[in-house]
Amino acid sequence: MRSFSAFLLVSSLFLVVTITAGAAVSVHHDAEKPLNSGGWQPIKNVSDPHVQEIGKFAVAEYDNKSKAQLVFQEVVKGETQVVAGINYRLTLKASGQVKIRGNGAVVVGEYEATVWEKPDGTRQLTSFKQV
C-alpha cells in the first residue's frame, strides 16, 4: 500500500510539472494556434493593436538611434518567434522627408524590423533595414 501511495504521489507531481511546463509555452500570436519555441510563425492578424504598437516602437527607436525622421504608417506583414520572450520580425511602411533638387518630398518606404519583447514587457530593437 505504501509503494502504491508513493507511485500516486510521483505520478501526480509529474502531471503537475508537465501541465505547468506546457502552460509556459502556450503563448499565442493569435487565438487559434500556439507558438512553437524557436521557429518563426506568421502573424495572421497584423492589424492587431499590439502588433501595430510593436511596429510604431521599432520606427521610434530607429529614429532615436539614427536621428532619422521616419513616421510609422502601418505593419503590413510579420512573424513571431518564441525565445526568452517573443521576437517580432515585421515588414512595415514608414514615410520620411527627402530632399529632391532642393525641394522636400515625402517618400513612403518598406522596412524590416526585428523587435525582441522580453517577458517583463520591455522591448529592444535588434535590427532595422529598408527592403
From TrEMBL:
SMART domains named in the record: CY
Signal peptide interval: 1-24
Family under the similarity heading: Belongs to the cystatin family. Phytocystatin subfamily.
Alphabetized PROSITE patterns for the sequence: CYSTATIN
Keyword annotations of the record: Protease inhibitor, Signal, Thiol protease inhibitor
Listed name of the protein: Cysteine proteinase inhibitor 1-like
One Gene Ontology MF term: cysteine-type endopeptidase inhibitor activity
Any Pfam family the entry gives: SQAPI
Organism: Ananas comosus (Pineapple)
InterPro entries associated with the record: Cystatin_dom, Cystatin_sf, Prot_inh_cystat_CS
Residue ranges occupied by any Cystatin domain in the UniProt entry: 35-131
